[in-house]
Amino acid sequence: MFVYLDNSATTQVKPQVADIMAKTMTEDFGNPSSLHRMGVRAEKLLKQARTQVAGALNASSDEVFFTSCGTESDETVLRGVWESRRKQGKRIITTAVEHPAILRSCEYLQRQGADVVYLPVDRYCRLDVEALKAALTPDTILVSVMHVNNEAGSIFPLADIRRAIDAVDPSILFHTDAVQSFEKLDTDVRALGVDMLSLSGHKIHAAKGIGALYVKKDLHIQPFLLGGGQEKGFRSGTENLPGIAGLGEAVRLAEEGKRERISHIAKVRARLLSLIRENIPDIAVNSPEDGVCSVLNVSFLDCRGEVLLHALEQDDIYVSTGSACSSHKKGSHVLTAMGLKPEEIEGAVRFSFCEDNTEEQMDYVCEKLKAAVSSQRRLRAAFKKR
Ligand SMILES: Cc1ncc(COP(=O)(O)O)c(C=O)c1O
Question: Which domain range does residue 87 map to?
Fold first, then answer.
């Protein structure tokens, strides 16, 4: 049985999305900037996708800009805000568990003179809003806190953070990386109180290489690319129309029956968690109780997560040991920041779900997982005896 449980790394493109993308490449292939009929048709598709994405964010269409990925959206915010506001203040507040797109950009800005505060998290990757309050100073220009952590699945309290910011200075900008929460949680930008929000297509069954950035109306930040002036001059470069139209369609599909879809994913996740708890001893659940429906992180003690990953792969089951971008490097900065013991970090596996997963699949996964864990523990015990 094929079971793909690495949906936080990337998702399978929906057939309807692929169809629209193919049509946009082979039939509606005009350049939205062209004045002829082909251009006008392309422009219409662009507008439609923008309206679809804006609708899912409760934003207006002119607040949505298409980018090439979540990474570009994140980095545009960090560098753009710094360029535009560095004269007003030097402090940027973020967390120790952000995606490298944020962390590497912060390190770059520190070299330019920024005073970056990395807020800590607890054992279940939860943020203490009091720590954020203490870090807010009149010198703060930006707070960037992710909505959902990609490795642990914890949800950060964005509305509380907005309130804390407003108590100090409402003009401090607030950005969230919503790459892992978009279409899994409510991402109403007005309710969350964010000024900017990043999202990525390939986490919601659209293609790789398409992302978007919400920027609150009348907020001017320095653009990254200074070319032909597309996206109202904010993001130059001929629009990736197939990717954009595909993202619009993926959003349309995700918005349809969103509640039922999320509750199905939550049920599948709960099933796997209870099966693991009942059948496999010596584990530590690293995701918080109130985490997102799509992520479950568990440490199998006396095991190496990477060995489990490859054992499961033999049974056509696909999981991850951390985020896809950090799993090739040593250790996970997220699990380390959570204060996990080295053996808990070593034995961590991330299961990440989408609506295509079923409860029956979870029975199969647990059976294979149990066998893989036992066999690894037996081998390790035999090795220790020698
Ligand atoms: C939280 C988070 N932010 C940003 C990104 C980067 O998105 P993209 O792959 O579209 O650049 C990812 C991808 O894993 C992510 O999980």
Answer: 15-255
